[in-house]
Design a protein that fits this description.
Length: about 450
């Protein structure tokens, strides 16, 4: 059936050639011409098929059905393969994009350990370059441990090794065999993880150490109190003296619980406006016990702006900063706590004529105490970090005060700044921007008044 058209064409040519041949008396030539015409037509179709075969992704142009049938089947198969390969390429591109964003280095190696491919993280962590393709990974990353690890080629093996490119970094490598002769090596930066693990270990060691000291005192006292042979006066006086170490244990546990809560509970969506002058006044009252005289602390609150925050947490900021200022000050030197409007630039304390929306209000605690040397400033908010351990012990405190302050301020979109000079004193301050404040309208009026007064004077 498929050759119907050719048969019909041949018959037509025959029907034409026979009468013409008979009429002209040259039947042989007529039949010869008809055959030539038929071959010409087939040749024409063959050329079309040939042109299509050179570019088989275009639809075949053969008008003749049998020739068309010859091309259309491979053409359709090619189209199906094309769709499949497009889908495959899309998937491949998705996988490649995924591999590219992975923060870990992914390197594909052939059976001899030569680099076949790698992602962006591999360029960053292992300094691999495009020109390294085809080179052995061990020759590029020259770390003895890593080279041995690659040579052994154990599936799913893990190795931690110092980065040969950055002495401060620790890398972790894993290797997997993916196909019979291929390996994937994953390398990640473990520096931060190790730092956190060390921090946790240190933290546990510090907590144990801090608790052991007062517990040793308590158990020593209790032994004497339980000893009938000891004079009653002594045993009674020891019961009184138990208050101090027990208080210390309680403060430490309270601070630890507060820190844990600060880290684990998210800020509520709805926050209450907290009146800072009131809160500061209450905090000053609480720390009066540490002051040498009632007038050692000066309160300087000139802003009525309220902080959108958690009152108890802001209160602990004030109490911690004030108690530090008192504890690290020589007898009777002044301590000042202030709540004042400053301009948007947090490094300047000058009052500005900005609109309320750009206002910043600063909480500052200033003392004229022992001060802190510059090399300690960046570490004093670490848990249990003390500038002078022995001194801190005699002055009291849990070593967690500034860590709590830092966390609370972070939760209130602020941060702790410190400037200090040894022997002259310290200033601890934090700024609250308009986004965290309410009742700023009155402040902007105050600013405008001050600005117009300044202009008048000028
Ligand atoms: P601590 O309970 O030991 O005071 P903090 O976290 O409150 O712990 O403070 C950490 C360290 O920072 C203190 O041990 C002290 O060395 C130093 N420090 C804090 N505040 C002051 C201050 N106002 N003046 C001098 N040093 C301070």
């Amino acid at each position: 059936m498929k050759f119907t058209k050719e048969v019909v064409t041949a018959l037509l040519l025959l029907v034409l050639a026979v009468p013409i041949g008979l009429a002209t008396g040259a039947l042989g030539w007529a039949l010869f011409a008809a055959t030539l015409a038929w071959i010409g037509l087939q040749w024409f179709e063959f050329r079309k098929a040939q042109t299509w075969a050179a570019r088989p992704l275009r639809p075949p142009a053969n008008a003749n059905r049998s020739w068309y049938a010859l091309s259309i089947t491979p053409y359709r198969m090619l189209q199906r393969e094309r769709v499949r390969s497009r889908q495959f390429m899309t998937r491949l591109r998705e996988v490649m994009a995924l591999v590219e964003v992975i923060p870990d280095a992914v390197i594909i190696l052939n059976e001899t350990g030569e680099i076949e491919g790698f992602n962006a993280a591999a360029q960053r962590l292992l300094h691999l370059k495009e020109s390294d393709r085809g080179i052995g990974l061990a020759a590029v990353v020259r770390s003895p441990d890593f080279v041995t690890f690659l040579r052994e080629g154990v599936n799913n093996a893990i190795l931690e090794f110092p980065s040969p490119f950055d002495a401060d970094k620790t890398l972790e490598a894993r290797s997997f065999s993916v196909e019979e002769n291929r390996f994937v090596v994953l390398v990640r930066d473990n520096t931060e993880l190790n730092r956190l693990l060390t921090m946790r270990q240190n933290f546990i060691a510090n907590v144990s150490h801090e608790l052991r000291t007062p517990l040793t005192v308590v158990s020593g006292y209790l032994e004497t109190i339980a000893d009938d042979s000891q004079p009653d006066d002594l045993r009674l006086s020891l019961i009184d003296r138990l208050t101090s170490p027990i208080g210390r244990i309680r403060s430490l546990v309270d601070d630890l619980l507060l820190l844990t809560r600060l880290e684990s509970t998210p800020m509520p969506a709805e926050l209450d406006p907290v009146s800072m002058p009131q809160l500061i006044s209450n905090a000053v009252q609480e720390v009066q016990g540490l002051a040498h005289s009632r007038d050692q602390i000066t309160i300087n609150c000139t802003s009525n702006a309220k902080v959108l925050g958690i009152e108890a947490e802001l209160y602990s900021v004030c109490v911690n900063l004030l108690s530090n200022a008192l504890r690290y000050s020589q007898e009777g030197t002044p301590v000042e706590i202030s709540w004042q409007l400053v301009d948007g630039d947090t490094t300047s304390t000058e009052v500005a004529s900005d609109a309320a929306s750009q206002s910043t209000v600063r909480l500052m605690v200033k003392d004229a105490g022992v001060g802190i040397a510059p090399e300690h400033l960046h570490r004093i908010t670490e848990r249990f970090y003390r500038v002078d351990m022995a001194d801190a012990r005699t002055r009291g405190g849990t070593g967690l005060g500034l860590a709590i302050v830092k966390h609370v301020l972070r939760r209130h979109n602020s941060e702790l700044h410190v400037s200090s000079v040894v022997g002259e004193g310290s200033e601890f301050y934090c700024d609250f921007t308009a986004a965290k404040l309410t009742d700023l309208a009155a402040e902007s009026k105050l600013l405008d008044n001050q600005s117009s007064q300044a202009h008048a004077q000028a």
